[in-house]
Amino acid sequence: MTMASRETNLRPLLREGALYWADNARVICAKCAGQSALYTGRDISGQKVERITVAEVRAWPDDLGILRCASGCTALTAIAGPDGWPLERGDVW
Ligand SMILES: [Zn+2]
Fold first, then answer.
1. Which of 11, 18, 26, 75 could pair with 92 in a Cys bridge, judged by C-beta atoms 3.0 to 4.6 Å apart?
2. What is the three-class DSSP state of 56?
3. Cα(75) to centroid(ligand 1), Å
4. What is the rounded average pLDDT of the residues 19-25?
């Protein structure tokens, strides 16, 4: 039995290699966002998740460490890629 709702898109709305603000300024990525956020663009509280921009990566305070998702699997650079969104870091570990 499926829990798919009318709002559910078959294609993930979140991209791998990107980060998103979820509830309480939690940072998530497509891999650890959970099915709800991944396919509806909304977290479990129903709030829309917002993709993190290059400006937000640049504004991230150094003393908070690397801007990365809550599970630590994805982090961003402050460099804009060809699509204008921040590039993923490959050196987080
Ligand atoms: Zn993640």
1. 75
2. helix
3. 8
4. 91
How close is the Cα of 67 to the center of ligand 1, in Å?
11
Residue 86 CA to ligand 1 centre (angstroms)? 15
HSE-CB of 85 using CA atoms within 13 angstroms: 15
Whether 6 has a pLDDT exceeding 70, the answer reads no
For every residue of 16-29, DSSP letters joined together read: TT-EEE-GGG-EEE
Q: What is the average per-residue pLDDT within 8-34?
A: 89
- The closest of 56, 90, 60 to 75, measured between CA atoms, is 90
Gap from CA of 55 to ligand 1 centroid (Å)? 20
Where in the chain are the domains? 19-88
Report pTM.
0.83
